[in-house]
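Lab notebook, bench 4. Continuing the backlog of folding jobs that were queued last week. Each job is logged with the same field layout so the records can be merged later without manual cleanup. Today's entry covers Probable peptidoglycan glycosyltransferase FtsW, a 397-residue chain. Filled in by technician R.K.

JOB TYPE: sequence-to-structure
TARGET: Probable peptidoglycan glycosyltransferase FtsW
LENGTH: 397
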Amino acid sequence: MQTLFNNIKGDRLIWAIVALLAILSFLPVYSAASNLAYKGTGGNTFTFFIKHFVHLILGFAIIYGVHKIPYRYFKGLSLIMIPIVLVLLAITMMQGTTIAGANASRWIRIPFVGMSFQTSTLAAVVLMVYVARYMSKIKEETVTFKASILPLWIPVFLVLILILPANFSTAAIMFLMVVMLVFLGGYPLRYLAVIIGSGILVLTMFILIAKAFPDAMPNRIDTWMGRIESFSNPEDTEADYQIEKAKIAIATGQIWGVGPGKSMQKNFLPQSSSDFIFAIIIEEYGLIGGFVIMTLYLWFLFRVVIVAQKSDTIFGKLLVLGVGLPIVFQALINMAVAVELFPVTGQTLPLISSGGTSIWMTCLAIGIILSVSAKREEIKEQEINEDNPLEILSEAI
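JOB STATUS: finished
OUTPUT FIELD FOLLOWS
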């Protein structure tokens, strides 16, 4: 065990924050999964606890393995992974899975293992690494819009178009994060305005085509529009069932909460262990518990910015921001949905909500961040050794 700790590199505060979030997730997941347990496993909630524990253990194994990889290798890996991700997304979409006539093709089943994998979460991480690679490559060059279309925007729009029919919120968040990253990378604002306009145009065309030919292309447009209408019309309690239950849970929790495992709304709130777990946390642990969780995410954001600022390369800076900021952004959206500041999106709370793929891909992103910070530590140690007279003397002897 001591050997393992000695081999852990990178920003120790990020390690601590991630470990705290993982530890704090166990009781809420165990409590919130009770309604799923009674529906699927005859009331055995411990099964969900063990499942969540295994997911987190595998997640930390991913963090450890990835953070040992020199981050410069991710440049080449992103080029290899983009075509693979496009193929996986195409296979996922062509499955044609529908729920109530809407496209629900988000997962593919891994052969021989029997596990489901949400391909869009992998695509999100790979795409951000790919964009960071391209922006670092052209940083010292004169950027032209025409030259950036094929190597940058074609892969971005292909990934988003393959995700859009089944998962609008993920596609929208990915597009926003890409726009943010290229802006930070120095992409000209006039070109960026064209891209944003093109994105809005593509979305409008997709909605019109999907509305005109609903049978030819199952989609979730009615679901999206229903959620937006529900958000803008709080009196529509039937369409706003999830939000109403979340608000009841938050109101019940007050300052100190009703206590661990004593939530009542977990029995009525759909997706209480994933999409709406923040409401359950506040019900059981009060505003104090919710504030602790939010503080940890903001602390994580602060450390991400610090690691990016200290990175010795443009690629390292953009890489850390590209994979780190979406984690915090997703967390804030999840919390905003629970308190009705944002329409329902289906986004989980990173490292807190139950679920395998979301946890593993979050851990993949964290491993990449730690890889960048580990490289900075290595350079710093080398600089100290070079300036150490005793080290120079020992080498001379």
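OBSERVATION: The longest strand covers residues 107-109.
SIGNED: R.K.
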